Amino acid sequence: MTDPNKPDQPISDDDWASAMSEQAPEGDAAEEDPWAAAMAEQEAAEQAEDDPTPEPEPPVAKAASEELFRPLSGESGATAARDLEMIMDIPVKLTVELGRTKLTIKQLLELAQGSVIELEGLAGEPMDILINGYLIAQGEVVVVEDKYGIRITEIITPSERIHKLNR
């Protein structure tokens, strides 16, 4: 085998062994490294599959340490506020629904410019405001400086949402 950077010089097994020993962790560092422990455990499992020895006892579950899970404390309110700030800039899709109707494919193909489609919603009835497809409020149409808008008239509570789904 040769070094790709020095193709004229062959690489001996001693060179490989010295290079691997340089990379080996020293003393307690291997015991603290979770990756090294996991790799050693995987190696032991692979060797156990190759050996026709009886199966060892199943591993005993260990308690989760505070390193993995932070204990709950009184200052969790401050972290909750920080976590809430992280999601404030996530975009959501707001939809205002005037009404709905069902059409057959024949009726859909008969539509032309100027056709009027009758919706289930009545004139003056509050319109549904949906966030990412979920009903969260109702409102009425307003016109401000030649632009349409919606004024929220009612926020839907979770229990009201369930009641409306059952209709």
Q: Could you estimate the helical fraction of the residues in percent?
A: 25-40%
- Binned strand content: 15-25%
Following the backbone from N to C, one meets helices and strands in this order, namely EEHHHHEHEEEH
Rg, please?
A: 34 Å
Sheet with most strands: strand arrangement: 3-4-5-6
The unreliable regions are none
Q: Give the beta-strand count.
A: 6
| Overall mean pLDDT | 76
Shape: elongated
Number of helices: 6
Oligomer: single chain
* Main sheet properties: 4 strands, antiparallel
InterPro entries: FliN (IPR012826), FliN-like_C (IPR001543), FliN/MopA/SpaO (IPR051469), FliN_T3SS_HrcQb (IPR001172), SpoA-like_sf (IPR036429)
Organism: Vreelandella malpeensis
Membrane topology: Peripheral membrane protein
Protein name: Flagellar motor switch protein FliN
Keywords for this structure?
22% strand, alpha+beta, 167 residues, 35% helix, 4-stranded antiparallel sheet, elongated, two-stranded antiparallel sheet
Q: What can you tell me about this protein's structure?
A:
With 167 residues, the protein is of the alpha+beta class. It contains six helices and six strands, in the order E-E-H-H-H-H-E-H-E-E-E-H. Strand 4 and strand 5 form a beta hairpin.
Architecture blueprint of SSEs:
Layout: E1 2-3, E2 6-10, H1 13-23, H2 29-32, H3 34-50, H4 76-87, E3 94-97, H5 105-110, E4 127-131, E5 134-144, E6 147-155, H6 158-165
Antiparallel strand pairs: 1-2, 3-4, 4-5, 5-6
Organism: Vreelandella malpeensis
Protein name: Flagellar motor switch protein FliN
Subcellular location: Cell membrane; Bacterial flagellum basal body
